[in-house]
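Mods, move this if it's the wrong board.
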Amino acid sequence: MKKITSSLLIMFLQTFLFQTALAQDENKALVPLPSLDDFTRGEDGWGFGLGLTIEYETAYEGSDEFEFELQPAGAVQWRKGDNIFYWAGEALGWRGLPADTWLLEALVGFDEGREESDSDKGYLDGLGDGDEGVELVLQARHTFSADWRYWLVGRVVTGENGNLGLFGVGRRFGDQIDGTGSEINLVGVFHDSEFANKDFGINAEQAAASGLDETRLSSGLRSVGVDYNYRHNINDNWQIYGEALYEYYSSDVRSSPIARSNYEAEIGVGFIYIF
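Not the wrong board. Structure tokens:
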């Protein structure tokens, strides 16, 4: 009787593990990274995800005020082989695998700019609203192994308000290939003078209106940071995800009167329904 029970248990475990592996193969993400959503379930054609995120974050770059904010989440995606084209909020983009160890991504997005009313305490009074603008984002990740356990990442943001670059390393946790699990990235962020002064500079007119010292920043290191991403499939349709970000500013940025805090931080949790 014990032998029969043991055999049945082994058969059950083998069946469960086979079905789990089969489900993962059927839902293989383009790249198994939780920071990159893939709603196509591993198949060519359309993928849709729609949800909501609640974020607790700094009110603006350099702020010491925090606020809760609700944001829509999800995307419309179309997959063809190793390429995904997507529309997510104010961004239209593409990501693809030209090789097993390379992920490339390009998107056009919209920067809403900073508003004077973003500070409830009036710290931005007299500075006016920041300029809105269109941005082009180019990103590349190169992994050291086919399972995307470790990688290098580089990103360039260029647009009407200057240029920003990000360079770092990342690690993925877990063995899932469906895009769930967790990952962490350590990065350094650099900006040119135009991008730096967009957020932290104060010209003569703004100085006169606000009473803050006129400030002009040069290009260089903006910050060092760490971000953590988590994604989990609750069932066939519902997905939960989370992100935590901490960014410590360079001494040049911290010297600006706008930077009332030495860091930027954000934490967010959201749910997405996958159609």
